[in-house]
Design brief:
Elements: E1 2-8, E2 15-19, E3 29-34, E4 37-44, E5 47-55, E6 60-67, E7 74-80, E8 86-95, E9 98-108, E10 122-125, E11 131-137, E12 140-147, E13 150-158, E14 163-169, E15 179-185, E16 191-199, E17 204-205, E18 216-217, E19 231-235, E20 257-261, E21 265-270, H1 274-291, H2 296-310, E22 318-321, E23 327-332, E24 339-344, E25 348-354, E26 361-368, E27 372-377, E28 382-387, E29 392-397, E30 403-408, E31 419-420, H3 422-426, H4 432-438, E32 447-450, E33 452-454, E34 456-462, E35 470-474, E36 483-488, E37 494-501, E38 504-512, E39 517-523, E40 534-539, E41 543-548, E42 554-556, H5 559-562, E43 572-575, E44 578-584, E45 587-593, E46 597-602, E47 605-612, E48 617-625, E49 640-646, E50 649-654, E51 658-664, E52 670-677, E53 682-686, E54 699-704, E55 709-714, E56 724-729, E57 734-741, H6 750-754, E58 760-766, E59 770-777, E60 780-788, E61 795-801, E62 804-810, E63 813-820, E64 823-832, E65 834-840, E66 848-853, E67 856-863, E68 868-876, E69 878-886, E70 891-900, E71 909-918, E72 924-929, E73 934-941, E74 953-959, ...
Parallel strand pairs: 1-95, 26-32, 31-32
Antiparallel strand pairs: 1-92, 2-3, 3-4, 4-5, 6-7, 7-8, 8-9, 10-11, 11-12, 12-13, 14-15, 15-16, 16-17, 16-18, 19-20, 20-21, 21-22, 23-24, 24-25, 25-26, 27-28, 28-29, 29-34, 30-33, 35-36, 36-37, 37-68, 38-67, 39-40, 40-41, 41-42, 43-46, 44-45, 46-47, 47-48, 49-50, 50-51, 51-52, 53-54, 54-55, ...
Helix pairs in contact: 1-2
Length: 1267
């Protein structure tokens, strides 16, 4: 059984909408649809603030605002895509200061008998907000009445226009008239614009075309292609000025209409006048009469007349040339739609405006942004750009250029005439003569303004890693924490994304030249002071004292005036209070009061020092404790070997295995409270209070040499001092210990200990670089977990990060350990070779950390311990499609395609290249340009040195010829790395032309690779070339296996080649020992249509084009082997890549029930984990998912069981449910549910789960830790 979890949710933005979701209409909201969820932001003066998020349990394809009453408040109408198309109303509420999106009414759109719409799946709202119309099936629409912000009566209407391309509501003069503008592809493959009335009383669309808009066929020259969706923009009537007088200063009136976007021109088609409508109505009446006359000749003439009308081409009222690529998004700047922002597929942003002097259009270039899928104008020239191919952005549009004032704002191709920007000012007066002076063209043809400079400023950027075309999982820096590197973006925003859950260290100061540091302690002048003034640094041989003497000055204090013992190393330092005893009525009470004292523990003993405020330094005072000076002979010859302290307790470990507990007594003298001898030498001690508001600890942790044992000792009462509470043995020496309460309980009293947020733990840093954590519960050390930090010895220390107390675990690399989602979670920190860390609050460095490294000190801040860090390596127009990582050479090979943006209908110039990038700096080392019409299609990193005649990368290509239905030519190229003058580059070792596209490449064995070429799997052997050959290596074909339609996926699992046929299914192929034959082992013959596959060790896991996951197990029999399908699951996303491995080096418990096996990547930017769960636990988790699905439903009452059932082209089928996979994200809702016990009980006895609640939570926490 496998579990599916999400590491990084989908980041692709499909829709956005500005709205008012509360009765306070002064507060604006931005609703953003990201594939399967809705995010609501409030529009603040300093940017966007995320208020809430709602999962939709379906891909969002439509987002509209529907009015609630007349106050201006709106609800959100969300449309989800197939296979469970649905309309859901979401209401925004605020409860106890927490914002929520709650589902209200819903309407199912599912029709299993209908054919899914090919071009447009969308929902539109009438301008009055009274009806909604949804399109998701060919030849039909769903009409839904809207009543006070809720969905009312719904019914289907037939639509004669089968191939609907776009639709929108027109603005009508009558409130009870609803008219749709429709753009469709007719039977002659012509694009036709027409309109139909929605007849609510008759529950249908008008059989005849509406008279509101004159039916017209759009010019093929203007709209040459439907490759990109066409868009319709409804324009309301403009009543200011005179309709007859285009010279009216207030702007000419027009009757409203529709803008058609997506062609070589933007066209405005005006609605018919009242006279035209009446004339057309009379003509339609006469035509209908002739059609029903029964006279064949009259009927034939009427039909011919009807065809003539439908094929008529009507000139648009106004047009303007569109100089760039396909328009992908638009938004209106004002309610009258007089100004519209347009964005194309390559991020070219322009403003389209109706002229003030005539009914004409002016196009004003603004700048380049991310390729938009949605635009939302907020206010004050601020625009939101939502993107699928690049980062989403919040922009400000300036009225004047803000940069690059001497260069063109956007390139305008030849053939598009322009006017200078000064023309806008010169035509502001009255009269056509002025316009004619600037541009002799008719106002109907519009103007394109030639502007210079950049008008857009990026205010905020929201990371988007979609679409992920390929990915690599690699430990680049040797930290043990794998990084995800994705090939993302497209068009003008191609990029590599480095994704890692890592805390960001922001360095503020550095002090080098201090080798051998073992620990560091900031010191305050008094115990109750908040500011540190000094820094004590211990090395292997001495102790150094530094003073923060200036704003950015750290001064080394001379040993003679330091006050601290500097000739020996230090084990512990800290400020301490004085203990004051008062007697009232014969009863003595003690309390802690402020003092200038501090304690330093060295091998010699316990030193007392006092701060002198006049001299701003410390001085030594009497009253210390030194074993060699004691009268007790049992302490003779002993020295301190380890120490720890709390503000009122000092615990020292002495040679010979003696542990001594001390405190500050009367007259500022250190006194011995109790000692205990152990058989082993003491290695490390911790006595940190669990309650940070107290000055004393209730437990001590001690570790020992030789036995590698940890013991927890009691400090509860004097009688129990140093008594053993529990112990544990570890596989390596525990050289650093820390007792810490990860909870936020302010009290460690009995009440606090019973609270759910009292979480005492013991953290141990081991000599082998491992960090072990134990939960200290019920007097026992439980839930042991371990994680590796490299080969250097590990240490642990307490720090403050982002306002919370965390544990800094350090070794060869560092982790911050913090409590989140019911467990201790590690967050890597980007600092290496950390020895110790401590909280620093100096005047020049408030709320910082001081970190001791192997060579010096670092001062800075750690930010975002629970946030995902995404680093972007921009490639611009070079769009990465395939990539591979060469471990020995520490380089990436990235295959890119580059499309030169042109106008709609122009031929696109696509070139291919292969880039060599340094794995650390991502600097481009080499660029290999493919031949003309050749594009890279696959990349493989080969094992070995990768230099000389040892190939590092194998590149597969395809030659694109537009006239070919199937590629007939490609290449396989071998590269190695060479170095000249310290610069690494690619050297071609071999090149072989093949008959087709090289879809995939895998390394089989030494000098043997397999390639997927069109329908075949071909085996090649690499050998040395003959003397005199142009290249040093040769690829010889050794075997071929041709039993497929299109082989697009190959995987070598160490024993077999796993083959994914894009049209059929999966196969298992054996390579003979001499690599001369390919033999079929097993095959699935079902129509799976796989998009990605990977091996499991005993089978195949994959995903198909219907957004399902599937898995097979290879069952070996004496006669033959078969692929047995053992899992299928609807993931509702297109998976492009599987990688074997884990996303993090999370703590691994000894009895872990869940283990990470694979990582998957989708086209919408989702990264997820596939985890294996033990057979016994899988039965319980399956039952838990079943029980939870009966109570927890998605928006619109979506049932989880049905939602995850496998989908087919026509939707879900009741014949098959998901099996073999569990929904980890859904199961983890158990941890936050207010009453999780009900899911264990079930509805009947047979559904009861016989597992303790704590065990179920522990398993789910294990799941969370792996994604």
């Amino acid at each position: 059984m496998r579990v599916v979890g999400t590491f990084h949710p989908s980041s692709s933005v499909s829709r956005s909408l500005k709205c008012h979701l509360t009765p306070d209409t002064t507060l604006e909201h931005l609703a953003v649809a990201k594939t399967e969820r809705i995010e609501v932001y409030s529009v603040q003066p300093d940017g966007l603030k995320l208020e809430c998020t709602a999962d939709m349990w379906g891909r969002v394809v439509g987002l509209q605002a529907i009015p609630v009453g007349d106050g201006g408040q709106s609800n959100l109408l969300v449309m989800t895509d197939h296979p469970d198309a649905k309309l859901v109303v979401m209401t925004y509420t605020v409860e106890d200061g927490i914002s929520l999106l709650k589902p209200e009414s819903s309407c199912s759109l599912v029709d299993p008998a209908a054919r899914q719409a090919e071009f447009v799946t969308e929902v539109q709202i009438d301008p009055t907000g009274q009806i909604a119309i949804a399109s998701c099936y060919a030849g039909k629409l769903k009409v839904v009445r809207i009543e006070n912000g809720e969905l009312g009566q719904a019914f289907d209407v037939s639509l004669p226009e089968i191939n609907l391309l776009a639709f929108t509501f027109l603005h009508t003069a009558k409130e009870d008239r609803y008219t749709l503008a429709l753009l469709h592809l007719n039977h002659k493959r012509q694009i036709q614009l027409l309109s139909r009335d929605v007849l609510l009383d008759d529950y249908e669309l008008s059989p005849a075309h509406s008279n509101m808009l004159i039916t017209t066929v759009l010019s093929e020259r203007t709209f040459p292609s439907i490759e990109h969706p066409l868009l319709l923009v409804a324009v309301p009537p403009h009543s200011t000025g005179s309709e007859e007088d285009d010279e009216d200063e207030t702007g000419p009136a027009h009757r409203g209409g529709v803008l058609v976007l997506g062609g070589r021109k933007v066209a405005f088609f005006e609605t018919a006048s009242q006279h035209q409508q009446e004339t057309r109505k009379e003509k339609q009446r006469r035509l209908s009469k002739r059609l029903s006359s029964g006279v064949q000749s009259e009927v034939s003439k009427a039909k011919e007349k009807e065809k003539e009308r439908e094929s008529r081409k009507i000139k648009a009222r106004a047009t303007v040339k569109w100089p760039w690529n396909a328009i992908t998004a638009w938004c209106s700047v004002d309610a009258k739609c007089r100004r519209v922002l347009l964005g194309d597929a390559f991020g070219r942003l322009a403003l389209l405006a109706f002229n003030a002097e005539n009914v004409g259009l002016t196009l004003l270039p603004l700048g380049e942004v991310s390729p938009p899928t949605t635009l939302a104008y907020l206010s004050s020239q601020v625009l939101y750009v939502g993107s699928h191919f690049g980062d989403s952005q919040l922009l400000r549009i300036h009225p004047a250029p803000i940069a690059n004032a001497s260069t063109e704002t956007l390139p305008i191709p030849t053939g598009v005439s322009t006017v200078p920007s000064s023309a806008l000012a010169s035509t502001s007066g009255k009269g056509k003569g002025r316009l004619g002076d600037i541009d002799q063209a008719s106002p109907r043809d519009g103007r394109v303004v030639q502007t210079k400079g950049k008008f857009v400023e990026v205010l905020q950027t929201h990371d988007n890693i979609a679409p992920i075309m390929d990915a690599v999982l690699a430990d680049i820096d040797g930290s043990g924490q794998p990084q995800v590197i994705t090939s993302s973006g497209a068009h003008n925003t191609g990029s590599l994304r480095v994704i890692r859950t890592e805390a960001d260290f922001q360095e503020q100061a550095r002090l080098d030249g201090l080798p051998g540091i073992t620990d560091v302690w900031p010191v305050r002048p008094r115990f109750n002071e908040a500011t540190h003034t000094h820094l004590v640094v211990s090395t292997l041989r001495e102790t150094l004292l530094f003073s923060f003497s200036g704003k950015e000055t750290l001064t080394n204090i001379e040993p003679s005036i330091a006050g601290f013992a500097t000739h020996v190393p230090t084990y512990a330092v800290g400020n301490i209070p004085r203990r004051q005893t008062t007697t009232v009525g014969g009863r003595s009470t003690s309390s802690y009061v402020d003092s200038p004292l501090a304690v330093q523990i060295t091998p010699e003993g316990v030193h007392l020092v006092e701060h002198d405020p006049a001299l701003h330094t410390f001085s030594s005072v009497a009253g210390g404790w030194y074993p060699k000076k004691l009268e007790d002979p049992s302490f003779a010859g002993r020295e301190v070997v380890a120490a720890a302290m709390s503000p009122s307790q000092f615990v020292v470990g002495l040679s010979g295995g003696r542990l001594a507990l001390l405190n500050l007594g009367a007259n500022d003298t250190v006194q011995l409270l109790k000692s205990r001898d152990f058989p082993d030498e003491i290695c490390a001690i911790s006595c940190t209070p669990f309650d940070r508001t107290k000055n004393y600890a209730t437990a001590i942790a001690v570790s020992f040499w030789g036995s590698n044992k940890i013991a927890v000792l009691s400090l509860d009462t004097p009688d129990s001092y140093l008594g053993t509470l529990c112990d544990a043995t570890l596989p390596a020496l525990p050289r650093s210990l820390l007792l810490h309460n990860f909870g936020t309980s302010a009290s460690a009293s009995a009440r606090g200990k019973d609270s759910a947020d009292f979480r005492p733990h013991l953290v141990a840093g081991l000599a082998d670089g491992t960090v072990a954590t134990f939960a200290l519960r019920d007097g026992q050390l439980l839930d042991r977990k371990a994680s590796a930090l490299g080969n250097a010895p590990a240490s642990v220390s307490l720090c403050e990060v982002d306002g919370r107390t965390v544990v800094l675990a350090s070794g060869a690399r560092a982790n911050v350990l913090y409590w989140d989602r019911q467990r201790v979670r590690p967050s890597p920190v980007g600092v290496k070779n950390v020895v110790k860390g401590a909280t620093l609050n100096a005047p020049a460095f408030p709320s910082c950390l001081v970190i001791a490294t192997s060579s010096g000190l670092l001062i800075g801040n750690v930010r975002g311990v629970d946030k995902m860090q995404i680093r972007t390596i921009s490639l611009g127009m070079d769009n990465p499609r395939k990539m591979a990582y060469h471990n020995q050479q520490q380089v990436f090979g990235v295959a890119c395609t580059r499309t030169s943006p042109g106008r709609i209908g122009d031929n696109e110039d696509i070139t291919g290249s292969f880039k060599l990038l340094d794995a650390h700096s991502f600097q481009q080392l080499h660029h290999f340009q493919c031949d003309l019409s050749e594009e890279p299609s696959s990349v493989l990193a080969l094992p070995g040195e990768g230099t000389g005649h040892s190939p590092a990368f194998c590149l597969g290509t395809v030659v694109i010829r537009p006239e070919e239905r199937e590629p007939s030519s490609g290449r396989i190229v071998l590269f190695s790395l060479s170095s000249a003058d310290g610069v690494r580059s690619l050297t071609t070792l071999a090149s072989l032309k093949v008959r087709g596209c090289v879809y995939a490449l895998v390394h089989v064995s030494e000098n043997v690779i397999a390639a997927a070429i069109n329908t075949s799997v071909v085996l090649y052997k690499i050998r040395q070339a003959n003397p005199g050959d142009a290249l040093p290596l040769v690829l010889d074909q050794a075997a071929e296996w041709n039993h497929n339609h299109f082989v697009t996926n190959l995987v070598w699992d160490g024993q077999y080649i796993l083959v994914g046929d894009a049209i059929s299914s999966v196969s298992v192929v054996r390579v003979t020992q001499d690599a001369t034959r390919l033999e079929s082992v097993a095959r699935d013959y079902g129509p799976l249509w796989p998009t990605a596959i990977e091996g499991t060790g005993n089978g195949v896991i994959g995903a198909n084009s219907d957004c399902n996951l599937f898995s097979f197990t290879l069952q070996r029999g004496p006669q033959r082997s078969i692929l047995e399908k053992d899992g299928v699951y609807h993931i509702d996303d297109v998976v492009n890549k599987f990688i074997r491995g884990a996303l993090s080096s999370a703590d691994v418990a000894e009895d872990q029930a869940v283990h990470a096996t694979h990582v998957f990547f989708t086209s919408t930017g989702r990264i997820g984990a596939i985890m294996d769960i033990t057979d016994t636990m899988s039965l319980h988790m399956t039952a838990l998912q079943r029980n939870m699905a009966k109570t927890i439903t998605g928006p619109g009452d979506v049932n989880h069981t049905k939602y995850r059932a496998p989908a087919a082209p026509r939707g879900h089928t009741d014949a098959e449910a998901s099996y073999g996979f569990l929904d980890g994200d859904f199961l983890e809702k158990f941890l936050t549910h207010p009453q999780p016990e009900q899911f264990l009980e079930g509805e009947i006895e047979a559904e009861r789960i016989a597992l303790p609640l704590a065990t179920v939570k522990d398993v789910l926490v294990q799941m969370q830790s792996l994604h």
